[in-house]
């Protein structure tokens, strides 16, 4: 089966988002509570929860396609990451200004692209 151009683009975006969320989530788990909460309006346990959610979302972006098991989980993982990035965008605007909110906003848009592109579960593996 020949992969479509959009399928290749989706895989590239999924891999990049996976790396980003693994790094971001991993940092939230390994940093000390003092460093993690410095300058943040949120508690360390909440930020660690977000870190776990980011790691699970990252794995959900790629593992179902790689293993060909439950490919319908990929768009659901992407939707979960969109929700996290929406919260990150709002929080960043409120605490640091619009200029710094561009990264979480663009990341959320890319996750939404994956969710939309992988919405057809029958062809989610292409």
Mean pLDDT across all amino acids:
93
Strand content: under 5%
Spans with pLDDT under 50 lasting ≥5 residues? none
Order of helices and strands: HHHHH
Helix residue percentage = over 70%
Rg for CA atoms: 15 Å
Number of domains: 1
Shape label: globular
Task: Give the helix tally.
Answer: 5
User: Largest beta sheet, briefly?
Assistant: none
Structural class: mainly alpha
* Count of β-strands: 0
Distance between the termini: 8 Å
Features:
126 residues; mainly alpha; 5 helices; globular
Can you describe this structure?
- Helix content is 75%, strand content 0%.
- The protein has one domain.
- The model has no long low-confidence stretch (mean pLDDT 93).
- It is mostly helical.
- The radius of gyration is 15 Å and the shape is globular.
- It contains 5 helices and no strands.
Write the layout of secondary structure elements.
Blueprint: H1 5-30, H2 33-37, H3 44-67, H4 73-96, H5 102-117
Helix pairs in contact: 1-3, 1-5, 3-4, 4-5
Short summary:
This protein has five helices and no strands. The protein is mainly α. It is globular and about 45 Å long.
């Amino acid at each position: 089966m020949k992969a479509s151009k959009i399928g290749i683009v989706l895989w590239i975006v999924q891999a990049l988002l996976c790396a980003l969320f693994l790094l971001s989530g991993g940092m939230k788990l390994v940093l000390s509570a003092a460093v993690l909460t410095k300058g943040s309006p949120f508690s360390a346990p909440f930020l660690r929860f977000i870190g776990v959610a980011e790691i699970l979302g990252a794995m959900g972006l790629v593992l179902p396609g790689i293993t060909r098991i439950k490919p319908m989980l990929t768009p659901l993982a992407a939707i979960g990451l969109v929700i996290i990035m929406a919260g990150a965008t709002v929080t960043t605007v409120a605490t640091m200004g619009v200029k710094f909110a561009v990264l979480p906003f663009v990341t959320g848009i890319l996750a939404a692209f994956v969710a939309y592109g992988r919405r057809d579960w029958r062809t989610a593996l292409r």
